[in-house]
């Protein structure tokens, strides 16, 4: 048998423990097979549970092999017959209870249970999938003597240990997939992989591994299915093809589980006859029970990774894979790729690497959220080494333009940077050398990140470095601090350290943020220039944490000494250790610096010790690190400074405080001697000396290597150590066991009065665990005697103040007795006393230390539903009392109303609210708030005017106060316009500033801060069910207001809160058009300011919206069939798209010429704006007629310099076609100077949009203009790459005829006939 992989397990005493436990951390990991199997063998009756493939059957095989054949009987559950097993076997092993048919499951389980009960000397072990145990929990719970062991997935480290013998190529392939390690944590897959590795030492890609998993799973399932006569290998191939189709349909619908009915819909609906071929040999139960796993009545693949791989296999079978993906994976309404496809697409790289490049372009074109983790994971599969140089250049340009045209930062060390480095060539230089005048902070940040990674790879030419050195110097002279900030990053990226050193002269002119950046760059790059270091020191005195970190990065010994000498001499040590802001300061580096230079003159040592002493005082943790221990020891053993060091220690933290934390490896005879000598010199008493020495000795007294050298001290304190050892060996016993025994004895003592027995019964009932361990019937006798004799009319209650009250003992006994009886499972014995319990309902929560939820549930179970007559009895009885019975516990009064239907107590709700109005105190606010909540639910009939009256009477207006609650009720229940307007005004007028935290400082978080930063905000809840137009418009206006707050740090957190909540409002509405409106608002906002925060929020919630939608199976099947049947247009790249535009342009011209769409328009009214609007619609219509569905035409697209191009036409993964439209008589065509200036703009637009084709489309509307000038324009544009000039004459109401389109593809000659 192959190597057995020992699983992780968790043991449970019973079925309740199995399903109540959520902690998977407390697991047992065996390293020895015999001890593991020994644990199994020793258990009397055991059920092995786990997910499919986790190793249940393999475990039982190993168990059988470890036992003598004469002692064990093993069978499958479907074959289990107790009568045939015999009574003399020691072990009975039953496998796969979950494989029993559902109509036989209960019978087989009962037979196993009966066998266990009838054969006490036989240990029985059987296995079952965990979800089957959950489904049949009612019959499993009847087997009280059944223990459980759950087999869990292996830990990642365990998997890595097993795979450590694999080749580097294999490990690299596995690490590439973020999910592969998770899959290999299932022992079945790990075994498959190990088996595969024996024959395939170096697997080329992960696809081979997945294929192995799928094949093995199918073949194993077929072997267990005996009802087929055809060739199993051929059948396995057919089954896999059908599974690929099922997985593909599920991915189209964004589903990871389906019902049985949905499975039948897929099998019945998908095109082709493979399904029928499979089902002619197998029943549907094969898919339900063998291939797919069933959990809570739904079917799913064993692992989502398998589903994704199978879907990718089916995708790869399509001819035009990019077009298919465009149809099914792209959300055309919102610019995103459905996130589930980002997990499918990596598997395409295994078999269709040629298509993977175009797919990746598709993703970059249509996924606006470039910060997705799944996108980062996908990047691992992009292999630039297999691309042609043209493809590399194209990919580099696409990625750069994506980041230059969107307000998105390239994440630090993002995989995208590695791809850029590998794709870079000389042809990419111009992309990273844009004009800097209009670059914003995000673009500058991304440029610096790209430059840095390219420079690290020695890719940058001298031209690029020189360009950016000049640009950075120009930026740093700018008065814009943000541009100064990023200019420093550019200097660092191109390693222009000379200019950075020269900037030390300008340091004082920078603001604090730029100074911090300068300190970071120069510090972490270990600059040694004196002027730079003086910048650090001067800003260190301003408590700048960046400057302090820069100083802590110094490694040159001479500079360390001189720098700290200056700080000490300037008396600025305290400021060095008191940074302002939330940046973490790496003070641990100070210890390393001191250690590096400590062996110097006494003056230097004393300076460094002064720093170290303050360092020790300001540390915010107790344990001393290894470096601290080493330095501490070095100072203590240095006679020239040790005495002064100990004397300077904090009086609150004497020497002993630090000695107790020093690491044992640094403690030896020399250190202990030095400590003793110092303490003697300081005239410390014996107690102080002994305390310090014993603290050190206690850490190493058992270290055999040190015992000989320490014999002197070990002998001195031998008596102390003996006492310690004796104390450690003493066993502790529970303190109150004797008291409980005495209490129990009092109960059975005939001489003790009943009232005293009630007290001792109470004492025992407060200790349930002890009660369970004794004969509690005698306790019950006392309890029921109490209930039979209690007289509630004689009980008294008195409320002293808001938090204190007095109760009669009988009222205290009742809930404790009820709790004990119910905890012991005897609640039916209390049914006869239900009215006694009902009378005490107003006090249930205020007695003793019983969990309120638990005791209330016990009361509810016993009392049940009260009749009208019983409610009347209770009402009369409570009214007859003249004490505070109904005033002590408002929570219980409200539970009487809600849980027991006691409407006659509803008047108390208004009473609680009125008390709050009268006093307006915080003490009454909680009760009043809960009461108002119930009033809003209809327990008291209030009109909107009642709420408004309450609202106006409340003074304070906190975010969690009753005024806000009252306002929310008026909105939610009445859709009151005044309340809606007030709340929106409040949200605008009460901006919560961004929280400012400082390192090592703690402060309370306000309700408002909790609202905007917590996980459970409440201010917008009242709007979620209100969809009136006024609320929608207010939401849109508030969203714009939130956008206006986003650029400023002080209001950014509040802005994020507003935008997030408004997005959730519209997501809750499930209206796509409003999500699109918010995108328009964000994009418009980002045109004016580079706002990464707003852009990220937009992307995040758009994906939340898309992921909240799930396609129906029927629609998914239809879309699948359409993908199979459709003949997609052969537009796979930019060249195809350019060629197709010729046809589009001709068709548009026919529309203008043949139908004269402008014939009714006066030529004076034919403006550029009018033609733009009409042309967009005409292009879309013609594209649709020609089969270009899902083409996108964007008008007035803003570029990075805030200029706008007229049109961008997008299709699939191609780069866009740019169209610039002008009228023939426009001066930018007719006048030479203006025409040449416009040509420069046109070139900029082409580069900025990364257009695959740039079109200059000129319209003659009969308002003048020389057509010969158009010929000059064509000649001037002749040298521009992929550029076309078109001239179209429009038929207008003046009677002018429309001429033929005049077009010229640059680079080709055309001839024109002269008009006669």
Strand content: 5-15%
Q: How many beta-strand elements?
A: 19
Q: Are there runs of 5+ residues with pLDDT below 50, and where?
A: 729-735, 1293-1316
Q: Which strand order does the major sheet show?
A: 2-1-7-3-6-5-4
Mean pLDDT: 86
Helix vs. strand class = alpha/beta
For the largest beta-sheet, the strand count, sense and barrel status come to: 7 strands, mixed
- Residues in helices, as a percent range: 55-70%
- Described by the principal axes of the CA atoms, the overall outline is globular
SS summary, helix count: 67
Radius of gyration: 40 Å
Q: Termini separation (Å)?
A: 95 Å
Description:
With 1316 residues, this protein is an alpha/beta fold. 58% of the residues lie in helices and 7% in strands. The protein contains 67 helices and 19 strands. The protein has a seven-stranded mixed sheet. A six-stranded mixed sheet has the order 14-15-16-17-18-19, sandwiched between helices. Strands 8-9 form a two-stranded antiparallel sheet. A hairpin with a 6-residue loop joins β15 and β16. α28 packs across α29 and α56 packs parallel to α58. The longest helix has 22 residues, at 1134-1155. It is globular, with a radius of gyration of 40 Å. The protein starts with 7 loop residues before the first strand and ends in an 11-residue tail after the last strand.
Keywords:
1316 residues, alpha/beta, seven-stranded mixed beta sheet, 67 helices, 58% helix, 7% strand, globular, disordered C terminus
């Amino acid at each position: 048998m192959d190597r057995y992989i020992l699983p992780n397990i968790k043991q449970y005493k019973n079925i309740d423990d199995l399903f109540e436990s959520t902690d998977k951390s407390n697991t047992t990991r065996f390293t020895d097979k015999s001890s593991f199997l020994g644990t199994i063998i020793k258990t009397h009756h055991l059920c092995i549970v786990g997910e499919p493939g986790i190793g249940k059957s393999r475990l039982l095989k190993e168990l059988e092999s470890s036992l003598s054949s004469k002692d064990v009987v093993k069978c499958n559950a479907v074959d289990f017959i107790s009568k045939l097993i015999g009574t003399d076997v020691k072990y009975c092993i039953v496998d796969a209870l979950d494989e029993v048919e559902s109509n036989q499951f209960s019978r087989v389980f009962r037979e196993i249970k009966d066998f266990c009960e009838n054969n006490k000397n036989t240990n029985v072990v059987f296995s079952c999938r965990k979800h089957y145990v959950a489904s049949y929990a009612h019959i499993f719970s009847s087997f009280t003597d059944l223990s459980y062991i759950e087999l869990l997935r292996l830990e990642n480290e365990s998997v890595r240990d097993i795979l450590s013998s694999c080749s580097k190529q294999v490990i690299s392939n596995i690490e590439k997939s973020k999910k592969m390690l998770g899959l290999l944590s299932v022992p079945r897959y790990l075994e498959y992989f190990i088996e595969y590795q024996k024959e395939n030492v170096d697997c080329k890609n992960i696809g081979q591994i997945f294929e192995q998993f799928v094949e093995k799973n199918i073949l194993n399932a077929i072997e267990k299915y005996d009802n087929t006569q055809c060739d199993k290998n051929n059948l396995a191939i057919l089954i896999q093809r059908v599974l690929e189709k099922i997985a593909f349909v599920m991915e189209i619908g964004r589903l990871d589980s389906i019902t049985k009915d949905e499975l039948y819909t897929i099998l019945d609906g998908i095109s082709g006859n493979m399904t029928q071929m499979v089902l002619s040999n197998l029943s549907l139960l094969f898919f339900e029970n063998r291939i797919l796993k069933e959990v809570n009545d739904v079917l799913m693949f064993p692992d989502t990774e398998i589903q994704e791989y199978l879907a990718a296999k089916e995708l790869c079978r399509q001819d035009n894979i990019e077009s298919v993906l465009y149809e099914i994976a792209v959300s055309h309404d919102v610019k995103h790729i459905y996130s589930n496809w980002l997990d499918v697409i990596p598997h395409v790289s295994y078999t269709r690497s040629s298509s993977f490049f175009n797919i990746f372009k598709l993703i970059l074109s249509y996924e606006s959220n470039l910060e997705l983790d799944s996108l980062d994971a996908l990047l691992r599969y992009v292999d630039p080494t297999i691309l042609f140089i043209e493809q590399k250049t194209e990919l580099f340009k696409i990625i750069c333009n994506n980041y230059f045209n969107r307000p998105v930062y390239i994440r630090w060390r993002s995989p995208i940077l590695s791809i850029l480095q590998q794709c870079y060539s000389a042809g990419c230089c111009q992309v990273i050398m844009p004009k800097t005048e209009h670059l914003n902070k995000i673009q500058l940040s991304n440029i610096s990140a790209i430059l840095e990674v390219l420079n690290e790879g020695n890719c940058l030419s001298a031209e690029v470095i020189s360009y950016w050195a000049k640009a950075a110097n120009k930026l740093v002279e700018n008065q814009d601090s943000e541009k100064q900030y990023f200019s420093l990053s550019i200097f660092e990226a191109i390693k222009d350290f000379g200019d950075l050193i020269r900037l030390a002269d300008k340091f004082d002119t920078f603001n604090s943020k730029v100074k911090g950046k300068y300190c970071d760059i120069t510090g972490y790059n270990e600059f040694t220039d004196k002027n730079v270091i003086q910048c650090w020191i001067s800003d260190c005195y301003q408590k700048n944490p960046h400057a302090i970190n820069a100083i802590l990065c110094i490694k040159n010994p001479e500079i360390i000494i001189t720098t700290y000498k200056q700080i000490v001499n300037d008396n600025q040590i305290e400021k060095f250790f008191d940074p302002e802001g939330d940046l973490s300061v790496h003070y641990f580096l100070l210890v390393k610096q001191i250690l590096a230079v400590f062996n110097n003159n006494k003056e230097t040592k004393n300076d460094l010790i002064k720093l170290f002493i303050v360092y020790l005082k300001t540390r915010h943790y107790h344990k001393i690190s290894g470096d601290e221990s080493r330095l501490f020891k070095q100072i203590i053993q240095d006679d020239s400074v040790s005495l002064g060091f100990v004397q300077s220690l904090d009086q609150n933290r004497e020497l002993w405080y630090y000695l107790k934390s020093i690491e044992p490896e640094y403690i030896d005879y020399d250190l202990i001697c030095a400590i003793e000598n110092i303490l003697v010199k300081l005239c410390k008493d014996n107690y102080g000396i002994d305390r310090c020495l014993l603290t050190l000795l206690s850490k190493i007294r058992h270290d055999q290597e040190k015992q000989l050298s320490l014999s002197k001290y070990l002998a001195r304190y031998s008596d102390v150590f003996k006492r310690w050892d004796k104390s450690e060996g003493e066993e502790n016993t529970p303190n109150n066991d004797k008291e409980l025994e005495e209490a129990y004895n009092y109960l059975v003592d005939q001489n003790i009065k009943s009232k005293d027995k009630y007290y001792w019964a109470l004492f025992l009932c407060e200790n349930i665990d002890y009660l369970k361990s004794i004969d509690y019937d005698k306790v019950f006798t006392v309890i029921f005697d109490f209930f039979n004799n209690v007289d509630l009319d004689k009980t008294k209650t008195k409320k002293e103040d808001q938090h204190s009250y007095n109760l009669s003992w009988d009222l205290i006994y009742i809930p404790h007795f009820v709790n004990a009886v119910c905890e012991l499972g005897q609640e039916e014995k209390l049914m006869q006393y239900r009215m006694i319990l009902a009378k005490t309902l107003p006090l249930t929560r205020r007695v003793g230390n019983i969990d309120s939820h638990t005791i209330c549930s016990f009361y509810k179970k016993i009392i049940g539903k009260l009749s009208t007559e019983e409610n009347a009895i209770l009402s009369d009885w409570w009214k007859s009392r003249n004490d505070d019975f109904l005033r002590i516990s408002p929570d219980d009064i409200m539970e009487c109303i809600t849980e027991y239907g006691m409407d006659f107590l509803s008047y108390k709700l208004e009473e609680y609210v009125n008390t709050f109005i009268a006093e307006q105190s915080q003490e009454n606010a909680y009760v009043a708030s809960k009461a108002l909540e119930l009033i809003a639910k209809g327990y008291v009939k209030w009109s909107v005017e009642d709420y408004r009256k309450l609202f106006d009477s409340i003074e304070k207006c906190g975010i969690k106060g009753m005024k806000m609650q009252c306002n929310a009720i008026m909105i939610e229940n009445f859709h009151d316009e005044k309340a809606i307007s007030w709340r929106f005004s409040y949200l605008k007028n009460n901006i919560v500033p961004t929280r400012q935290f400082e390192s090592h400082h703690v402060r309370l978080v306000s309700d408002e801060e909790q609202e905007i930063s917590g996980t459970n905000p409440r201010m917008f809840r009242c709007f979620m069910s209100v969809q009136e137009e006024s609320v929608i418009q207010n939401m849109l206006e508030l969203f714009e207001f939130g956008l206006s707050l986003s650029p400023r740090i002080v209001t950014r957190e509040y802005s994020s809160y507003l935008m997030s909540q408004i997005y959730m409002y519209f997501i809750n509405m499930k209206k796509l058009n409003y999500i699109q409106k918010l995108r328009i608002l964000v994009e418009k906002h980002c045109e004016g300011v580079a706002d990464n925060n707003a852009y990220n929020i937009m992307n995040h919630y758009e994906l939340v919206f898309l992921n909240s939608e799930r396609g129906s199976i029927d629609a998914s099947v239809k879309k699948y069939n359409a993908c199979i049947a459709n003949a997609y247009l052969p537009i796979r790249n930019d060249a195809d798209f350019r060629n197709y535009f010729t046809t589009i342009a001709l068709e548009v011209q026919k529309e203008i010429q043949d139908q004269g769409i402008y014939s009714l328009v006066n030529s004076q009214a034919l403006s550029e704006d009018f033609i733009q609007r009409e042309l967009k619609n005409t292009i879309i219509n013609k594209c649709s007629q020609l089969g270009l569905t899902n083409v996108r035409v964007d008008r007035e697209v803003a570029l990075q310099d805030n200029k706008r191009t007229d049109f961008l036409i997008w299709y699939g993964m191609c780069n866009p076609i740019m169209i610039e439209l002008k009228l023939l008589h426009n001066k930018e065509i007719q006048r030479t100077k203006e025409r040449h200036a416009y040509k420069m703009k046109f070139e900029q637009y082409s580069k900025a949009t990364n257009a695959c084709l740039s079109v200059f489309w000129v319209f003659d509307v009969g308002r003048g203009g020389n057509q010969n000038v158009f010929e000059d324009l064509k000649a001037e544009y002749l040298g521009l790459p992929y550029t076309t000039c078109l001239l179209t004459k429009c038929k207008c109401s003046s009677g002018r005829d429309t001429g033929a389109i005049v077009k010229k593809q640059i680079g080709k000659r055309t001839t024109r006939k002269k008009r006669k």
